[in-house]
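Interim report to the steering committee. The following record documents the input for Cytidylate kinase (192 residues).
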Amino acid sequence: MAKIITIARQYGSGGRIIAQKVADKLGLVYYDNQIIDLAAEELGFDIRTIRKAAQEKSSGFLYTMAGGTFQMPLNDQVFATQSKIIRHLATNDSCIIVNGCADYILEDFDHVLKVFIHAPITSRAKRVEEEYGEKHENYIKYVKSRDKKRENYYNYYTTNKWGQLTNFDLTINSDFGLDEVADVIVEMYRKL
């Protein structure tokens, strides 16, 4: 029986780092950008193009005509392909999936621990500057804009609301410490 951890997170909360720590402690495979890369491969597009499309909701054009057939917009194709890949991974093996919509995509699966990692805006801005090494004029404004993109994407592709507590089994502030948060997730996973 596969047991899955899905991790959604606010930008700069350290969710990806925490996911890797949990994967190391539990000996699980951890998927993040690999899902996007698999979607790119399946759709036959450049990885950079697909990564950009995977972060933005559809443009609003329902379908386009290409070669005499109707096609979904690329963003919608990417979401559908990622959903298929996530469901396949969850069906076949225990793993950790860091993807903003994985909690929704797997909502009908048993044995899924759905985690949302958050932190105060000042902590996240500091992490983006100091740990991620990104360069921005205004870190708080940048972090807020990245969260807004995640929120728009999630709210567009799901029937849930991004960051809503009831979507998750565990919501936790990463300011408690990345190792400490990883330990809490590990304990919760063992109770699945």
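Residues 74-92 form the longest helix (19 residues). The committee is asked to note this result when reviewing the revised timeline.
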